[in-house]
Design a protein that fits this description.
MetI-like fold; 13 helices; 278 residues; 73% helix; globular; mainly alpha
């Protein structure tokens, strides 16, 4: 029977990766553990990582005491709307940037990249005034438009990298057969860029799902607030109910975790391929 030789470098690499994984997972373990504690145990000293008594009632309370289901529905509508609008706008823009040679294409691409570098916080005040003038405060449409504007630069760059990898000869042959530029985009280019479109959709969805600052400024009605705003519900009279806040955070994280598990292979392929410069 052949003996398996374990090299010291393999052991060291395994220990290093285990340490990095433990460091990355520790905050999530703290959140999950706190979500199952009673409020009294949260403030106990010394603190405990594993609850002495698992308070599963916390997950019932967050749905009873606040309109948690409504917050989840709001976030789902905003994130889904942002994703659809993002793909609809970013796809033709990315294709044009990758394939159509027009004057100022380099400046256009650089401008998109520079837009991604600025923090959206700097436009909060003028954005509020614009949304108020357009009567888009406390509406799904307002948040969808804002989230789309924020995620659009990245959403254009990712598919553009995929479009550049499509052989131009394939497109030339399709156009000789009578396909228009639009027909070639939908019948040739899009089917070949599945991982890139999946990456773009996931990025837009997760960004819109986790967005907080725009919702804080543009939404005041409780029934229109997304799930990120629900975290505010557990601070009253300078006392934070950390166990319920953490339970809310866990529930808010579940949809994005499930989404990543479902499409993790496509996401990895999309990020790696879209990052290659042609």
């Amino acid at each position: 029977m052949a003996q398996i030789r374990v090299r010291p470098s393999d052991v060291l690499r395994t220990l290093l990766l285990a340490g990095v994984a433990a460091f990355a997972l520790f905050p999530f373990l703290v959140v999950a553990g706190t979500s199952l504690k009673t409020l009294g145990e949260v403030f106990q000293s010394p603190a405990t990582l594993v609850p002495r008594l698992f308070a599963w009632q916390n997950y019932v309370d967050i749905f009873v005491r606040i309109p948690m289901a409504r917050h989840l529905v709001n976030s789902m509508i905003i994130a889904a709307g942002t994703t659809v609008l993002n793909i609809a706008v970013a796809t033709p823009a990315a294709y044009a940037m990758a394939r159509i040679r027009f004057r100022g294409r380099g400046v256009f691409g650089l401008g998109i990249l520079v837009m991604q570098m600025f923090s959206p916080v700097i436009v909060l005040i003028p954005l509020f005034k614009v949304m108020k003038a357009l009567h888009l405060l406390d509406t799904y449409s307002g948040l969808i438009l804002v989230n789309t504007a924020v995620t659009l630069p990245f959403s254009i760059w990712i598919p553009a990298g995929f479009f550049r990898h499509i052989p131009e000869e394939l497109e030339d042959a399709a156009m000789i057969d009578g396909l228009s530029r639009t027909g070639m985009l939908f019948r040739i280019a899009l089917p070949l860029t599945g991982p890139g479109l999946a990456t773009t959709a996931i990025f837009a969805f997760v960004t819109a799902w986790n967005e907080f600052i725009f919702a804080l400024v543009l939404v005041s009605r409780r029934e229109m607030q997304p799930i990120t705003m629900a975290l505010y519900s557990w601070e009253k009279n300078n006392v934070v109910e950390w166990n319920l806040l953490m339970a809310t955070a866990v529930v808010a994280t579940v949809p994005t975790v499930v989404l990543f598990l479902l499409v993790r292979k496509r996401l990895t392929a999309g990020l790696m391929s879209g990052a290659v410069k042609s």
